[in-house]
């Protein structure tokens, strides 16, 4: 089994997890100018929804999966009503603080309702993986990589090629102007929250077989996903993907060749390096440029 | 002004009356034990098991009573973090009505609150196994599990003696528990003339262990010894270890046989060995504890509940032996306990506050923890 290809596969797998969660961040930053610190909790709620649907209720995995994603979309609308809507005219900071509060509230609500026991959620495939050319391909990492690729393509198409995407971007850049142009601003923002929560939930469901389902699972990955956003360029879709993947690869190779205990320090060292040398990230901040 | 003076005086008198009356008036006044326990964070499930053990002990203790009164637990969540533990302990130590404490099972958190325990000057039972915890001159600390100098000796003895392995890879958490456990294992192996081929630390709550597993594989080790703090970390590592083709024997510290780890890792832990401070079949007392636990909670207990069960029982005995709730008297009575048969083993506290010196070797046979034997050391 060869070392470098194995590390590369694992790094890309981990990076795809960060990228998938980072995509949810990007949506809300671009369309509603909201930095949502409860994005990790969306992942946690999605995973728990799947545990209930697939585990407790016995619904087959492939039927439970879309149900859980739709439920999360509905939850996104509720979340917007509770955290964003009452504060939408008070600037970004109160909304950010509100999402931090919501993150703590959601984690503790799940803890109170579901208890502290971590759960095992089976993956999409029965087999844990297979070996190709001496590299063990974890089936769940593959599923995450494929899903991340599909979602980034889908998201890019929505934002760049559809009228809905244009409306969402217009809403993000200038809500008053968008409103004057006849864009239903409130609806656009609700759609964004619903999509972001659905995406977060999907990420959680895919990540659950790797990290287990627990109240704290969102916190583990959301910080790295946030860093991926900054590395890629705040609010940039390809940037979030590339930021996530590079973060995953850097920490995996750093752990293998430099130090395992300092792998998080290496990942956040990369973040600091970008903040110092290229604060606009790999792809710059599109919203700021447009504004 | 006169009215204001009168009001103040009346207020002061009534406050004093309220503060002093209940102590004399209410015979059912409880003896309160402050408990620092994780109700949230990655160890929340383990915290629940700990509370189960305490409640089971409370049921027994309160049948007879302690100094004619009942024991009551006052719990505070440590959030599975050091700052959380410090905050939880400060809330408890600020209450004058708390007689003694039960602290965390995680050594790093015991380290964090140890200076405050010294200031509070009341006994604290705890479960952390870092040997240094009782070597820093804090006379109020009483350990209800054997420390890792013993677990390391048992891991080394079993791995080199029974399994006849010489090339050791030691994988450990870089927190206080894991670091000191690994040092103890390195020392125990050195005593047998063995230098590990790999000493590999990791940080808690990592999402991937590929680099650690590959390091184990590259090292050419024929056995893995481990000190994992969190069961979720152990679960991910175990799965990746097997997926990446490492099949050498693995002897782990007690977390390898904990209920949570067994549930999360499943088949990946089949065939592994553990040194466990608690094993159901180790002694008649451990068996009796397990039977009652199963009747109460419909689950098999692990060390998360056995040590807290013992902690409550030992405190009850200490307070009864002391004949008062005066902290120094309780401390002296606890320190004098000899031959107490607890769920974890026979307690004989030494002058440092260590009560136990034995570990059980167990094997995971298709998910069932099978007792092999108990190894006791002299103080």
Kindly list the characteristics that best describe this protein.
heterodimer; A: 291 residues; mainly alpha; 12 helices; B: 379 residues; alpha/beta; Rossmann fold; 2 domains; five-stranded parallel beta sheet; 46% helix; globular
Please give the structural blueprint:
The complex is a heterodimer of chains A (291) and B (379).
Chain A: H1 3-32, H2 39-56, H3 61-84, H4 92-114, E1 129-132, E2 135-138, H5 139-161, H6 163-173, H7 175-180, H8 185-211, H9 217-232, H10 237-257, H11 263-277, H12 286-290
Helix pairs in contact in A: 1-5, 1-6, 1-8, 1-9, 1-10, 2-3, 2-4, 2-8, 2-9, 3-8, 5-6, 5-8, 6-8, 9-10, 9-11, 10-11
Chain B: H1 2-25, E1 31-37, H2 44-64, E2 71-77, H3 82-93, E3 98-102, H4 107-120, E4 124-126, E5 141-143, H5 148-162, E6 168-173, H6 176-191, E7 198-202, H7 210-219, E8 223-227, H8 231-243, E9 250-252, H9 259-265, E10 273-276, H10 284-297, H11 303-322, H12 327-335, E11 338-341, E12 346-348, E13 358-365, E14 368-376
Parallel strand pairs in B: 1-2, 1-3, 3-4, 4-5, 6-7, 6-8, 8-9, 9-10
Antiparallel strand pairs in B: 10-13, 11-12, 13-14
Helix pairs in contact in B: 2-11, 3-4, 5-6, 8-9, 11-12
Description:
The complex is a heterodimer of chains A (291) and B (379). Chain A has 291 residues and is mostly helical. Chain A has one domain. Chain A is 75% helix and 3% strand. Chain A has a two-stranded antiparallel sheet with strand order 1-2. Chain A is globular. Chain B is of the alpha/beta class and 379 residues long. Chain B has two domains: 183 residues, 3-Layer(aba) Sandwich (Rossmann fold), CATH 3.40.50.2300; 144 residues, 3-Layer(aba) Sandwich (Rossmann fold). The interface between A and B is medium-sized, with 34 and 36 residues.
Assembly status: heterodimer
Largest interface: A-B, 34 and 36 residues
Q: What's the helix count of chain B?
A: 12
Number of domains of chain B: 2
- Morphology call of chain B: globular
* CATH topology tier name of the largest domain in chain B: Rossmann fold
Q: Identify low-pLDDT runs of chain B.
A: 1-6, 13-27
- Sheet with the most strands: spatial strand order of chain A: 1-2
| Estimated radius of gyration of chain B | 22 Å
Tell me the distance between the termini of chain B.
Answer: 70 Å
Architecture per CATH nomenclature, i.e. the level-2 architecture of the largest domain in chain B: 3-Layer(aba) Sandwich
Overall mean pLDDT score of chain B? 90
Low-confidence stretches of chain A: 286-291
Strand % of chain A is: under 5%
Main sheet attributes: strand count, strand direction, barrel closure of chain B: 7 strands, mixed
Termini Cα gap of chain A: 51 Å
Radius of gyration of chain A, Cα only, in angstroms? Answer: 19 Å
Number of helical stretches of at least 4 residues of chain A: 12
Shape of chain A: globular
The succession of helices and strands of chain A, N to C, reads: HHHHEEHHHHHHHH
């Amino acid at each position: 089994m060869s070392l470098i290809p194995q590390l590369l596969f694992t790094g890309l797998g981990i990076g795809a997890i960060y990228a998938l969660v980072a995509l949810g961040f990007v949506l809300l930053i671009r369309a509603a100018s909201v930095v949502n610190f409860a994005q990790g909790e969306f992942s946690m709620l999605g995973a728990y929804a799947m545990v209930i649907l697939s585990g407790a209720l016995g619904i087959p995995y492939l039927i439970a999966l879309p149900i859980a994603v739709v439920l999360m979309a509905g939850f996104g609308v509720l979340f917007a009503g509770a955290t964003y809507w009452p504060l939408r005219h008070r600037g970004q900071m109160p909304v950010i603080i509100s999402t931090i509060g919501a993150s703590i509230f959601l984690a503790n609500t799940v803890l109170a309702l579901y208890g502290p026991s971590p759960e095992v959620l089976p993956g999409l495939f029965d087999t844990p993986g297979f070996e190709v050319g001496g590299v063990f391909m974890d089936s769940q990492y593959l599923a995450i990589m494929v899903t991340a690729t599909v979602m980034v393509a889908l998201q890019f198409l929505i934002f760049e090629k559809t009228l809905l995407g244009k409306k969402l971007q217009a809403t993000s850049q200038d809500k008053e102007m968008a409103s004057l142009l006849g864009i239903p601003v409130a609806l656009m923002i609700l759609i964004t929250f619903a999509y972001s929560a659905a995406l977060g939930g999907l990420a959680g469901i895919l990540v659950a077989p790797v990290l287990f389902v627990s109240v704290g699972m969102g916190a583990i990955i959301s910080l790295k996903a946030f860093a991926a956003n900054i590395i890629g360029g705040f609010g940039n879709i390809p940037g979030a993907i590339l930021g996530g993947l590079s973060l995953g690869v850097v920490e995996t190779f750093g752990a293998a060749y430099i130090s395992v205990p300092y792998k998080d320090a290496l990942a956040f060292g990369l973040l600091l390096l970008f903040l110092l040398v290229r604060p606009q990230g790999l792809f710059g901040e599109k919203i700021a440029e447009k504004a | 002004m006169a009215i204001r003076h009168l009001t103040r005086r009346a207020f002061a008198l009534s406050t004093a009356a309220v503060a002093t009356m209940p102590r004399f008036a209410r015979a059912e006044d409880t003896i309160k034990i402050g408990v620092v326990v994780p109700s949230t964070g990655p160890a929340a499930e383990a915290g629940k098991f700990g509370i189960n053990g305490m409640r089971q002990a409370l049921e027994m203790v309160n049948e007879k009573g302690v100094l004619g009164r009942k024991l009551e637990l006052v719990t505070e969540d440590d959030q599975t973090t050091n700052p959380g533990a410090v905050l939880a302990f400060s809330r408890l130590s600020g209450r004058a009505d708390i007689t003694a404490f039960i602290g965390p099972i995680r050594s790093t958190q015991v380290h964090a609150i140890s200076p405050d325990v010294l200031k509070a000057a009341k006994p604290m039972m705890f479960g952390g196994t870092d040997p240094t915890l009782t070597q820093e001159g804090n006379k109020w600390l009483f350990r209800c599990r054997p420390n890792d100098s013993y677990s390391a000796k048992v891991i080394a003895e079993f791995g080199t003696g029974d399994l006849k392995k010489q090339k050791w890879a030691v994988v450990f958490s870089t927190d206080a528990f894991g670091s000191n456990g690994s040092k103890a294992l390195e020392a125990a192996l050195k005593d047998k003339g063995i230098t590990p081929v790999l000493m590999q630390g990791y940080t808690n709550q990592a999402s991937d262990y590929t680099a650690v597993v590959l390091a184990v594989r590259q090292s050419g080790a024929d056995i893995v010894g481990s000190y994992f703090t969190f069961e979720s970390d152990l679960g991910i590592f175990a799965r990746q270890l097997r997926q990446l083709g490492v099949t050498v024997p693995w002897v782990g510290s007690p977390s390898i046989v904990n209920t949570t780890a067994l549930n999360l890792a499943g088949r990946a832990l089949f065939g592994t060995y553990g040194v466990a401070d608690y094993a159901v079949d180790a002694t008649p007392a451990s068996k009796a504890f397990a039977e009652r636990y199963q009747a109460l909670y419909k689950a098999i207990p692990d060390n998360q509940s056995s040590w807290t069960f013992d902690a409550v029982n030992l405190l009850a005995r200490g307070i009864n032996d002391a004949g008062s709730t005066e902290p120094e008297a309780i401390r002296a009575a606890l320190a004098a306990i000899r031959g107490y048969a607890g769920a974890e083993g026979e307690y004989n506290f030494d002058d440092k506050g260590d009560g136990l010196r034995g570990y059980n070797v167990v094997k995971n046979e298709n998910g069932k923890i099978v007792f092999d034997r108990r190894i006791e050391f002299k103080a």
